[in-house]
Amino acid sequence: MKKLVILVMSFMLLTLFAGASFGEEIRIDGSTTVLPIAQKGAEVFMKKNPNIKVYVSGSGSGTGIKALIDGTTDIATSSREAKEKEIDSAKNKNIVLTGHKIALDGIVPVVHPSMNIKDLTLEQLRDIYNGKITSWKELGGPNRPISVVSRDTSSGTYEVWEEKVLKGDKVRADALLVASNGQAVQTVAKNKYAIGYIGIGYLDKTVKPLMVNGKTASPKTVRDGSWPVARPLFMYTNGKPAGNIAKFIDFMLSKEGQKVVNEVKYVSIN
Length: 270
Fold this sequence. Notes:
single chain, 270 residues, alpha/beta, D-Maltodextrin-Binding Protein, domain 2, 2 domains, nine-stranded mixed beta sheet, two-stranded parallel ribbon, 11 strands, 40% helix, globular
C-alpha cells in the first residue's frame, strides 16, 4: 500500500513539474516589420527563461491585432497605432488594447542597385505611387516604365506610407502588391526598373536605398525626426500585462531588449 501511495505521489509531482516546464507559453503575432525584433527578442528571452516557450509569427499588423481581440495571441506586434474601429471592436469583447512602444523604424524607398537615381522628394514618390510619374526618364533615369511595388492594404507599413507619402491618394492600379517586407526586397532585387519601400531593418545589399528630400535613413535621422517616413513600432497587450507577458514586455524595454532592436538593424527608442 505504501509503495502505491509513493508511486501515485511521484506521478503527481512529475505531472506538476512537467506543467511548470512545458505549459508556459507566449504567443506573438502581427507585423512583418516587427517580426525580426520579435524573433530575436524571443530567442534571447527563452535563453534567459528556459521554462517559457515563445512562439512568433508575422501575419500583418491588422491580423495580429484581430488575433489579440479574438484571444488567439497574447501579444500583437504592429507597425502602426491601433485604429479606433479596432479599439471599439476590442471593447465589445472586454479587451483593452494597450500599446507598448518598443522600437522606431524608418520606411525606406528602395530600387535595384543598378538604378542611377539617388534622391527623390516626397512629392516625386507620391506621384510615382499614384501614377502621375510612370517613367524613370521623368526623374533623370533610363527611358523605361517604373514597376511599382507596394504592400497590401492590411499592412501597417502600407498605411503609414499612404498617410505620409500618398497623403490619401490611392496606389496606382497596376502596382504589384506584396505581403511582406521580405517579398518587397526580393521583388525589387530581381527587377532593374522596380521601386518599393521597406522597414529599415530589411535593408541589404540586394537593393539600393534612396535618399528622400536630401536625407539618408539612419538611426540618427529616424530618432531626431528628420527622416520623413519614420514611425514607432508597437507590441499590444490586453490591458496592463501580467505574469510572463509582462516579463517579456519588460525585457523588450530593458537595455538588453533594446540591444536586440539595434542588432536586427532597427532603431532603439533611447
